[in-house]
C-alpha cells in the first residue's frame, strides 16, 4: 500500500516540515506493510512534547496536549488528528503503570513496544526501521514479543490479551511457543486488569479472522476461563461458526454464551459482567430470551406477525443461533426462513387514534381498547389489511347489523 492512499496523508508534509525526524510508528506502519486499511496515523519524534508542540504550531497546526505526561500531543491538520509521541524508554513498571523518560534513541523506544510487528517505524523518505525482524514476522504471521515474553507480561498483563488480539488478526501457523508458555504461567495476572480494558480487547479478539484458532489458544493457555468464566464449550462454537459466521464481535460473543447458561453467567448477564454499553447489553439480553413464536415452519403471515413485534436483526441472529444449536438435525428450514425474513417488508399498523375519531370513537380509554381490538384483528390477518380494510372491519364492529 502507498502512503498517498491513506486518508490524512496530506497533513504529514506539514508535520515533517515541523519535525523532520518524526516517523510513523506502530499499527499504521504494520498495516501499511501488509496492505490492510490504515485508520490512525501515529508518529513519534525525539522532540520533548512542549518543543514539538511549539514547532507544530509555528507550522500552522492546531495542537491539543492530549497526554503530556506520556509525551503525547495531538496535531489537528485539515480536521484530521495525528498523535505524536516523544520517544520513550521505560524507567520502571509495576505491571500496571509505567514510569518513562524521554530519549532520542529510536531503538530504545521500539524496545518498549509489545510485538515485533508493532515496533517498526517509517520516516519521511519511506525508509523502514525494523529493529527486531517485524517485517519477516508479519509476512510469516508470527506474533512475537519484543524481548522475553514472560518479562514483558510481568511488566503489563494486558499484553496477554494483545497477543491474542494480534494473533486473531495476523496469526498464521503455529503460535509462538515461548509466548504461550509465558501466558499459561502468568494468566492470573489478567484478573487485575480493569473489566473495561479486558472487554475492549475481547471485542477486538472476537472480530479477528482467526477467531477459532485464537479461542483454542486461549483455552489451551487457560486464559479463556480466566476472562470468560462459564463460557460454552468451544466444540459448540465450532459447530455454530460452521453454519454461517456473523462476524460481528458482539454476535460472536453471543455464540460463546448460549441462553440458559450457568447460574447468573449466561448470555443475559455477560453484557453487564463485561460492563458493555447499554445498547450492547440490550442486544445480548434480547438474544437470550426464548422466542417460541419463531419457528422454521412459519408461513409468511406468521412471520409478519413476529416481525411486527420483534426487531428483524435480532430475529435473524436468534434464528441463526438456534439453527446452529440444532445443527445435525436434517432439514430444519432455518436458512429458508431467514431468506424470507429478510425479504419481508416491515409491517406497519395502518391506523392511528385520529382515524378512529373520524369513525366516531371518543378519545379516552375506549379508543385505546378499540385500537387494540383492530390491531389484534390485523395481526390475525398476517398484517396484510390496509387502512381502508381496517376501517371497514372497525365500522362493522362499531355498528353491528
Ligand atoms: P490497532 O490497529 O488495533 O489500533 P495498534 O498497533 O495501533 O493496533 P494500539 O493499541 O493503538 O495498537 O497501540 C499503538 C502502538 O503502541 C502499538 O502498535 C504498540 O507499538 C504500542 N503499544 C500499545 N499498547 C502497548 C502495550 N500494552 N505494551 C507495549 N506496547 C504497546
Ligand atoms: Mg492504533
TrEMBL record:
Ranges of residues in domain tRNA nucleotidyltransferase/poly(A) polymerase RNA and SrmB- binding: 179-232
InterPro entries named in the record: Bact_CCA-adding_enz_type3_sf, NT_sf, PolA_pol_head_dom, PolyA_RNA-bd
Necessary cofactors: Mg(2+)
Keywords: Magnesium, Metal-binding, Nucleotide-binding, Nucleotidyltransferase, RNA-binding, Transferase, tRNA processing
CDD domains per the UniProt record, alphabetical: NT_ClassII-CCAase
Gene3D superfamilies the record matches: Beta Polymerase, domain 2, cca-adding enzyme, domain 2
Domain Poly A polymerase head: 22-144
Recorded family membership: Belongs to the tRNA nucleotidyltransferase/poly(A) polymerase family.
Protein name: CCA tRNA nucleotidyltransferase
Organism of derivation: Bombella pluederhausensis
Upper lineage: Bacteria, Pseudomonadati, Pseudomonadota, Alphaproteobacteria, Acetobacterales
Amino acid at each position: 500500500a502507498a502512503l498517498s492512499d491513506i486518508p490524512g496523508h496530506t497533513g504529514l508534509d506539514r508535520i515533517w516540515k515541523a519535525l523532520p525526524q518524526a516517523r510513523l510508528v506502530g499499527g499504521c506502519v504494520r498495516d501499511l506493510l501488509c496492505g490492510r486499511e490504515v485508520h490512525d496515523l501515529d508518529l513519534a519524534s525525539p522532540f520533548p512534547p512542549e518543543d514539538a508542540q511549539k514547532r507544530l504550531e509555528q507550522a500552522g497546526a492546531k495542537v491539543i496536549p492530549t497526554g503530556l505526561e506520556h509525551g503525547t500531543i495531538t496535531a489537528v491538520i485539515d480536521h484530521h488528528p495525528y498523535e505524536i509521541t516523544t520517544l520513550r524508554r521505560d524507567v520502571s513498571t509495576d505491571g500496571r503503570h509505567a514510569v518513562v523518560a524521554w530519549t532520542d534513541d529510536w531503538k530504545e523506544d521500539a524496545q518498549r513496544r509489545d510485538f515485533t510487528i508493532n515496533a517498526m517505524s517509517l520516516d519521511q523518505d519511506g525508509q523502514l526501521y525494523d529493529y527486531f525482524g517485524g517485517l519477516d514476522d508479519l509476512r510469516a504471521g508470527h506474533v512475537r514479543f519484543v524481548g522475553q515474553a514472560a518479562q514483558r507480561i510481568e511488566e503489563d498483563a494486558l499484553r496477554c490479551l494483545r497477543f491474542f488480539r494480534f494473533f486473531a488478526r495476523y496469526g498464521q501457523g503455529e503460535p509462538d511457543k515461548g509466548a504461550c508458555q509465558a501466558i499459561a504461567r502468568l494468566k492470573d495476572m489478567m484478573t487485575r486488569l480493569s473489566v473495561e480494558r479486558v472487554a475492549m480487547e475481547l471485542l477486538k479478539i472476537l472480530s479477528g479472522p482467526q477467531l477459532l484458532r485464537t479461542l483454542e489458544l486461549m483455552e489451551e493457555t487457560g486464559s479463556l476461563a480466566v476472562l470468560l468464566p462459564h463460557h460454552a464449550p468451544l466444540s459448540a462454537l465450532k459447530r455454530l461458526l460452521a453454519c454461517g459466521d456473523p462476524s460481528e464481535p458482539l454476535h460472536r460473543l453471543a455464540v460463546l454464551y448460549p441462553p440458559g447458561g450457568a447460574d447468573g453467567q449466561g448470555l443475559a448477564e455477560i453484557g453487564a459482567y463485561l460492563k458493555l454499553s447499554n445498547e450492547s447489553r440490550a442486544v445480548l439480553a434480547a438474544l437470550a430470551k426464548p422466542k417460541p413464536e419463531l419457528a422454521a415452519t412459519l408461513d409468511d403471515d406468521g412471520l409478519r406477525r413476529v416481525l411486527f413485534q420483534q426487531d428483524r436483526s435480532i430475529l435473524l441472529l436468534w434464528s441463526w443461533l438456534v439453527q446452529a444449536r440444532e445443527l445435525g438435525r436434517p432439514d430444519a428450514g432455518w436458512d429458508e426462513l431467514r431468506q424470507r425474513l429478510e425479504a419481508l417488508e416491515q409491517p406497519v399498523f395502518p391506523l392511528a387514534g385520529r382515524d378512529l375519531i373520524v369513525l366516531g370513537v371518543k378519545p379516552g380509554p375506549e379508543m385505546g381498547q378499540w385500537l387494540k381490538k383492530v390491531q389484534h384483528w390485523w395481526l390475525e390477518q398476517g398484517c396484510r389489511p390496509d387502512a381502508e380494510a381496517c376501517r371497514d372491519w372497525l365500522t362493522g364492529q362499531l355498528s353491528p347489523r
